Amino acid sequence: KKSVGDGIADSDVVLTLELRDEKDGTWPRGVDGKKKHQDMDEKNGVQKDEVQMGDGIVGLYNMGNTCYLNSSIQCLSHTPIFRDYFTSKSYLNDINRTNPLGQQGRLAQVSAVLINSLWKRFNQQPSLMGFGGKKITQPGSFTPINAPALTPKSFKEALGKFSDHFAGNEQHDAQELLAFLLSGLSEDLNQIVDKPYIEAPDSDGRPDKELADIWWSNHLKREMSIIVALFTGQYKSLLTCRSCKYESARFEPFAFLQLPLPEDDQISVQLILYPIQDERAVMKYSVRVRHDGTIKDLLASLAKVLHADMIEDEKLSQEQKSTDPEKDDTSKGVVADEKEDKESDYKEESSVVPNNDEGQEDVESSADMDVETSDNDGEQEEEKSISPIHLKMAHNLAVVDVGDGYIHKIVPQNWSLTKLQNRDTGEMPLITVHELEQLPTPEVEYANNE
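Structure tokens predicted for ubiquitinyl hydrolase 1:
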């Protein structure tokens, strides 16, 4: 027989010739080629035997902890080409029932049933669906709609039969489900019946574009499906020999990229601060501190926040003074003197340090009187990075254990934060902090004794 194209016999080729109606500009099978009948219903103005599709705004009920399933299905259902592939029944031409790596087309069939159910037209009044007209909503708000919802019970039961990992109604990872679905659908819809063995080619100095095309062509000889066309790409991996510096490049196909995320070594801790002045209100704060930090680190972080609030209050006070020029000059001087005295308590005292030139004994005695001296160089560097003002303010704060209306104990500042965490959940409890009278720092006390 005479062949047409790549070995396809002319007897197997079916050509459909369509002529567009010059009067109304319509095609016999529609613009998308999916409509089988052009007979029009004069009363309703729609084509006969045409499946009416909905808008796809259909919810999925949770069956236990199956939100991972619902979110994954909704994402796939609203991928236009993927959706049209199943709603147009084009997938029936690609089902591979002999592939041992697939589910003999059963996964593709249950997926098609579910997607068609999500996109069928429901008998709803437009006024109840919230689409009758555009409504202006504020940012962050939404307009509730009366949308239908389905329970994907049949799909969930079939999924549990295909993989025991997804049996039951326990919570799972959405990415794991997507990986299983896309891999299984690709094998069920793989147009390659007999997969040939193909040796992975080496780069051999070829340009990246040429080498990538070779790898992609070899991949399509073993797996060709709608999933490969939509969800598969290539990434380049380069292997370099340390001795001869020869580079070997590979362009592996991938459907998912696993990216390492940096671990957050900071935790959020909530505190309640009881000020020493009765006229000041009890405040609740949330600060960030290292998960392996100490109570001293926690108080230093709180001191930074308190100091920032103090500066902000001073700015507001200055702005109020500038807008009120008739204010009593005497009161201005009193307020200014109080602020200067308050700041000097931190600046002057924190600036006094022991003299290291007076001998080893003086250095050792100074270290003994320090509130918390660390032998670790890393901890010393961390302390140097903290402002002396913040250290002074932290020295006048104390974490207390409160119960039954009175203080049980004061938590030492060298305690690790892990001692305060809940042993079962690992959560950090609400920490109570009391402000103390301004005490002289150990360095200042040592200097005064000298």
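The mean pLDDT is 76.
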